[in-house]
Amino acid sequence: MALPSASLEKSSSPTYASLFPENLAHTTSSGALDSNDGPLAYLIHLYQRAIKLEIMADSKAIKLGVRRPALGDLLLDEDSTCQTVSALKLVIEILAHPAKILAGSTPLPEAIAASGSHVTLPFHLAFQQVRAVLEQKNTTLFDVHKLASYDYPNFCYQNFRQKDLRAAMLSGSGLDPALHTLLLDNETAAKTDFFKTAYGVAGSATEALVAISDVALFRHQTGLSEQDLYDLLALKSTDDGRQTGFSTTVKRSQHLPAASQTEVAASQVYGASFINNASSPAITITVP
Predict the structure, then answer these.
(1) Cβ proximity of 67 and 94 under 8 Å
(2) For every residue of 92-108, which 3-state class applies, written as one string?
(3) Secondary structure class of 282 (helix, strand, coil)
(4) pTM for the model
(5) Which InterPro entries does this chain map to (predicted)?
(6) How far apart are CA 170 and CA 58, in angstroms?
(7) E strand residue ranges, the chain
(8) Where are the chain's structural domains?
Protein backbone atom coordinates (compact mmCIF):
# COMPACT_ATOMS: atom_id res chain seq x y z
CA MET A 1 0.00 0.00 0.00
CA ALA A 2 1.40 3.37 -0.99
CA LEU A 3 1.72 6.01 1.71
CA PRO A 4 0.16 9.43 1.08
CA SER A 5 2.66 12.04 -0.01
CA ALA A 6 3.46 14.66 2.63
CA SER A 7 4.96 17.08 0.13
CA LEU A 8 2.96 20.11 -1.00
CA GLU A 9 3.21 22.02 -4.21
CA LYS A 10 5.17 25.27 -3.84
CA SER A 11 2.45 27.17 -5.65
CA SER A 12 -0.03 26.28 -2.94
CA SER A 13 2.23 27.33 -0.07
CA PRO A 14 0.97 30.38 1.85
CA THR A 15 3.17 33.47 1.57
CA TYR A 16 2.97 37.03 2.92
CA ALA A 17 2.21 38.34 -0.54
CA SER A 18 -0.61 35.82 -1.05
CA LEU A 19 -2.06 36.35 2.40
CA PHE A 20 -1.74 40.18 2.25
CA PRO A 21 -1.97 41.24 -1.40
CA GLU A 22 -0.55 44.71 -1.98
CA ASN A 23 -2.05 47.34 -4.27
CA LEU A 24 0.91 48.64 -6.26
CA ALA A 25 -1.06 51.76 -7.20
CA HIS A 26 -0.83 52.89 -3.59
CA THR A 27 2.92 52.51 -3.26
CA THR A 28 5.77 54.83 -4.11
CA SER A 29 9.53 54.76 -4.11
CA SER A 30 11.50 56.03 -1.15
CA GLY A 31 12.52 59.64 -1.66
CA ALA A 32 9.93 60.30 -4.38
CA LEU A 33 7.95 63.53 -4.42
CA ASP A 34 4.80 61.87 -3.09
CA SER A 35 6.51 59.70 -0.49
CA ASN A 36 6.30 60.28 3.25
CA ASP A 37 10.05 60.85 3.44
CA GLY A 38 10.35 63.05 0.35
CA PRO A 39 11.00 66.80 0.10
CA LEU A 40 7.34 67.69 -0.42
CA ALA A 41 6.28 65.86 2.72
CA TYR A 42 8.89 67.80 4.67
CA LEU A 43 7.77 71.15 3.24
CA ILE A 44 4.09 70.44 3.90
CA HIS A 45 4.83 69.36 7.46
CA LEU A 46 6.97 72.46 8.00
CA TYR A 47 4.23 74.74 6.64
CA GLN A 48 1.53 73.13 8.79
CA ARG A 49 3.80 73.35 11.81
CA ALA A 50 4.34 77.06 11.24
CA ILE A 51 0.58 77.65 10.98
CA LYS A 52 0.04 75.87 14.32
CA LEU A 53 2.75 77.95 15.99
CA GLU A 54 1.16 81.15 14.70
CA ILE A 55 -2.03 80.33 16.58
CA MET A 56 -0.11 80.53 19.85
CA ALA A 57 1.67 83.78 18.90
CA ASP A 58 0.63 87.21 20.14
CA SER A 59 -0.73 90.05 18.02
CA LYS A 60 2.74 91.50 17.39
CA ALA A 61 3.90 88.47 15.44
CA ILE A 62 4.41 88.90 11.70
CA LYS A 63 2.60 85.87 10.36
CA LEU A 64 3.56 83.75 7.40
CA GLY A 65 0.66 85.06 5.36
CA VAL A 66 2.17 88.55 5.56
CA ARG A 67 5.79 87.59 4.99
CA ARG A 68 5.09 85.08 2.21
CA PRO A 69 1.46 85.65 1.12
CA ALA A 70 1.67 83.38 -1.93
CA LEU A 71 3.29 80.47 -0.09
CA GLY A 72 0.04 78.59 0.52
CA ASP A 73 -0.92 78.73 -3.16
CA LEU A 74 2.37 77.46 -4.59
CA LEU A 75 2.17 74.46 -6.90
CA LEU A 76 4.55 71.72 -5.74
CA ASP A 77 5.52 69.40 -8.57
CA GLU A 78 8.62 68.00 -10.22
CA ASP A 79 9.43 71.23 -12.07
CA SER A 80 8.90 73.64 -9.18
CA THR A 81 10.82 71.44 -6.74
CA CYS A 82 13.92 71.35 -8.92
CA GLN A 83 13.65 74.99 -10.01
CA THR A 84 16.09 77.54 -8.59
CA VAL A 85 14.57 80.92 -7.75
CA SER A 86 16.72 83.97 -7.00
CA ALA A 87 16.25 85.83 -3.74
CA LEU A 88 15.66 89.06 -5.69
CA LYS A 89 12.66 87.56 -7.49
CA LEU A 90 11.18 86.39 -4.19
CA VAL A 91 11.61 89.84 -2.65
CA ILE A 92 9.95 91.50 -5.66
CA GLU A 93 7.00 89.10 -5.48
CA ILE A 94 6.57 89.68 -1.74
CA LEU A 95 6.64 93.46 -2.15
CA ALA A 96 4.36 93.35 -5.19
CA HIS A 97 1.62 91.37 -3.45
CA PRO A 98 0.29 94.18 -1.16
CA ALA A 99 0.89 96.70 -3.95
CA LYS A 100 -1.39 94.71 -6.28
CA ILE A 101 -4.10 94.73 -3.61
CA LEU A 102 -3.88 98.53 -3.34
CA ALA A 103 -3.83 98.94 -7.13
CA GLY A 104 -7.05 96.94 -7.49
CA SER A 105 -8.08 96.44 -11.11
CA THR A 106 -5.35 98.79 -12.38
CA PRO A 107 -2.28 96.91 -13.67
CA LEU A 108 0.56 97.34 -11.19
CA PRO A 109 3.07 98.88 -13.68
CA GLU A 110 0.50 101.54 -14.60
CA ALA A 111 -0.33 102.27 -10.96
CA ILE A 112 3.34 102.68 -10.03
CA ALA A 113 4.00 104.88 -13.07
CA ALA A 114 1.22 107.26 -12.03
CA SER A 115 1.74 107.25 -8.26
CA GLY A 116 3.62 109.72 -6.10
CA SER A 117 4.47 110.58 -2.46
CA HIS A 118 7.75 108.64 -2.54
CA VAL A 119 11.19 109.63 -3.72
CA THR A 120 11.40 106.59 -6.03
CA LEU A 121 7.97 107.19 -7.55
CA PRO A 122 6.57 107.55 -10.12
CA PHE A 123 8.39 104.57 -11.63
CA HIS A 124 7.81 103.88 -15.32
CA LEU A 125 8.90 100.28 -15.91
CA ALA A 126 9.00 100.42 -19.72
CA PHE A 127 10.97 103.67 -19.71
CA GLN A 128 13.47 102.34 -17.17
CA GLN A 129 13.92 99.17 -19.24
CA VAL A 130 14.72 101.26 -22.30
CA ARG A 131 17.24 103.30 -20.31
CA ALA A 132 18.89 100.15 -18.94
CA VAL A 133 19.34 98.68 -22.42
CA LEU A 134 20.74 101.94 -23.80
CA GLU A 135 23.21 102.18 -20.91
CA GLN A 136 24.53 98.75 -21.87
CA LYS A 137 25.01 100.09 -25.39
CA ASN A 138 26.84 103.17 -24.03
CA THR A 139 24.33 105.54 -25.56
CA THR A 140 21.40 107.68 -24.46
CA LEU A 141 17.83 108.16 -25.54
CA PHE A 142 18.72 111.68 -26.61
CA ASP A 143 21.29 110.35 -29.11
CA VAL A 144 18.80 107.80 -30.41
CA HIS A 145 16.29 110.58 -31.08
CA LYS A 146 18.88 112.55 -33.02
CA LEU A 147 19.78 109.57 -35.18
CA ALA A 148 16.13 108.64 -35.80
CA SER A 149 15.07 112.13 -36.88
CA TYR A 150 14.56 112.75 -40.59
CA ASP A 151 15.76 116.31 -40.05
CA TYR A 152 19.11 115.31 -38.52
CA PRO A 153 20.94 117.32 -37.49
CA ASN A 154 17.96 119.21 -36.12
CA PHE A 155 19.99 121.13 -33.53
CA CYS A 156 20.89 123.94 -35.86
CA TYR A 157 19.69 127.35 -36.96
CA GLN A 158 15.90 127.78 -37.44
CA ASN A 159 15.16 124.40 -35.87
CA PHE A 160 15.37 125.29 -32.18
CA ARG A 161 11.68 126.17 -31.85
CA GLN A 162 10.23 123.16 -33.60
CA LYS A 163 7.61 121.16 -31.73
CA ASP A 164 9.27 117.86 -32.64
CA LEU A 165 12.60 119.08 -31.28
CA ARG A 166 11.03 120.03 -27.96
CA ALA A 167 9.40 116.60 -27.72
CA ALA A 168 12.73 114.92 -28.47
CA MET A 169 14.53 116.99 -25.84
CA LEU A 170 11.86 116.19 -23.23
CA SER A 171 11.97 112.49 -24.01
CA GLY A 172 15.76 112.47 -24.02
CA SER A 173 16.02 114.25 -20.68
CA GLY A 174 16.04 110.95 -18.79
CA LEU A 175 12.74 111.66 -17.02
CA ASP A 176 9.77 109.37 -17.56
CA PRO A 177 6.40 110.67 -18.87
CA ALA A 178 4.78 110.84 -15.42
CA LEU A 179 7.60 113.03 -14.13
CA HIS A 180 7.21 115.30 -17.17
CA THR A 181 3.55 115.80 -16.30
CA LEU A 182 4.36 116.45 -12.65
CA LEU A 183 7.14 118.96 -13.30
CA LEU A 184 5.35 120.84 -16.08
CA ASP A 185 2.02 121.14 -14.25
CA ASN A 186 1.77 124.76 -13.09
CA GLU A 187 -1.40 124.09 -11.10
CA THR A 188 -0.26 121.06 -9.11
CA ALA A 189 0.41 122.91 -5.85
CA ALA A 190 -2.91 124.77 -6.14
CA LYS A 191 -4.99 121.59 -6.25
CA THR A 192 -7.01 120.78 -3.13
CA ASP A 193 -5.62 117.25 -2.89
CA PHE A 194 -2.00 118.23 -3.55
CA PHE A 195 -0.60 117.11 -0.19
CA LYS A 196 -2.68 113.94 -0.26
CA THR A 197 -1.41 113.04 -3.73
CA ALA A 198 2.19 114.16 -3.30
CA TYR A 199 2.86 113.16 0.31
CA GLY A 200 -0.06 110.98 1.38
CA VAL A 201 -1.08 113.48 4.09
CA ALA A 202 -4.79 114.27 4.46
CA GLY A 203 -6.35 117.44 5.80
CA SER A 204 -6.37 121.07 4.75
CA ALA A 205 -3.32 122.66 3.14
CA THR A 206 -2.37 124.34 6.42
CA GLU A 207 -2.74 121.15 8.46
CA ALA A 208 -0.87 119.05 5.91
CA LEU A 209 1.97 121.57 5.70
CA VAL A 210 2.37 121.51 9.47
CA ALA A 211 2.31 117.70 9.44
CA ILE A 212 5.03 117.24 6.82
CA SER A 213 7.17 119.85 8.56
CA ASP A 214 7.95 117.06 10.99
CA VAL A 215 11.24 115.56 9.79
CA ALA A 216 10.37 112.00 10.80
CA LEU A 217 7.02 112.07 8.98
CA PHE A 218 8.50 113.74 5.90
CA ARG A 219 11.26 111.12 5.66
CA HIS A 220 8.76 108.30 6.15
CA GLN A 221 6.40 109.57 3.45
CA THR A 222 9.14 110.31 0.92
CA GLY A 223 11.50 107.43 1.70
CA LEU A 224 14.46 109.77 2.13
CA SER A 225 17.30 108.91 4.47
CA GLU A 226 18.68 111.50 6.88
CA GLN A 227 21.62 112.24 4.60
CA ASP A 228 19.33 112.38 1.55
CA LEU A 229 17.29 115.07 3.27
CA TYR A 230 20.37 117.16 4.00
CA ASP A 231 21.48 116.76 0.39
CA LEU A 232 18.02 117.77 -0.82
CA LEU A 233 18.18 121.03 1.14
CA ALA A 234 21.90 121.59 0.38
CA LEU A 235 22.72 121.59 4.10
CA LYS A 236 25.46 120.11 6.23
CA SER A 237 24.48 117.85 9.09
CA THR A 238 25.72 119.57 12.25
CA ASP A 239 27.14 117.57 15.11
CA ASP A 240 28.55 120.40 17.19
CA GLY A 241 25.63 120.66 19.59
CA ARG A 242 23.71 123.26 17.60
CA GLN A 243 19.98 122.98 17.42
CA THR A 244 19.59 123.81 13.74
CA GLY A 245 21.27 122.37 10.68
CA PHE A 246 21.92 125.64 8.85
CA SER A 247 25.44 125.29 7.43
CA THR A 248 25.11 125.27 3.66
CA THR A 249 27.06 122.97 1.38
CA VAL A 250 27.20 125.68 -1.31
CA LYS A 251 30.71 126.91 -2.02
CA ARG A 252 31.68 129.94 -4.03
CA SER A 253 34.06 129.37 -6.91
CA GLN A 254 37.52 130.82 -6.40
CA HIS A 255 37.51 131.96 -10.03
CA LEU A 256 34.39 134.12 -9.67
CA PRO A 257 35.18 137.82 -10.17
CA ALA A 258 34.93 139.81 -6.95
CA ALA A 259 32.63 142.35 -8.60
CA SER A 260 29.99 139.66 -9.24
CA GLN A 261 30.01 138.34 -5.68
CA THR A 262 26.96 140.32 -4.66
CA GLU A 263 25.20 137.44 -2.86
CA VAL A 264 26.43 135.16 -0.12
CA ALA A 265 26.83 131.47 -0.81
CA ALA A 266 23.58 130.04 0.51
CA SER A 267 21.20 127.17 -0.19
CA GLN A 268 18.43 129.43 -1.47
CA VAL A 269 20.82 130.95 -4.02
CA TYR A 270 22.23 127.72 -5.40
CA GLY A 271 21.84 124.03 -4.67
CA ALA A 272 18.30 124.23 -3.29
CA SER A 273 17.07 127.38 -5.01
CA PHE A 274 13.94 125.73 -6.42
CA ILE A 275 12.91 124.23 -3.07
CA ASN A 276 13.45 127.54 -1.27
CA ASN A 277 11.70 129.50 -4.04
CA ALA A 278 14.94 131.50 -4.38
CA SER A 279 14.10 133.50 -1.27
CA SER A 280 15.55 133.88 2.21
CA PRO A 281 15.71 132.38 4.73
CA ALA A 282 16.54 128.92 3.47
CA ILE A 283 14.72 125.90 4.88
CA THR A 284 16.58 124.44 7.85
CA ILE A 285 16.31 121.30 9.94
CA THR A 286 15.73 121.52 13.67
CA VAL A 287 17.45 118.80 15.66
CA PRO A 288 15.25 117.58 18.55
Answers:
(1) yes
(2) HHHHHHHHHHHHCCCCH
(3) coil
(4) 0.52
(5) Insecticidal_toxin/plasmid_vir
(6) 53
(7) 244-245, 285-286
(8) 39-82, 232-288
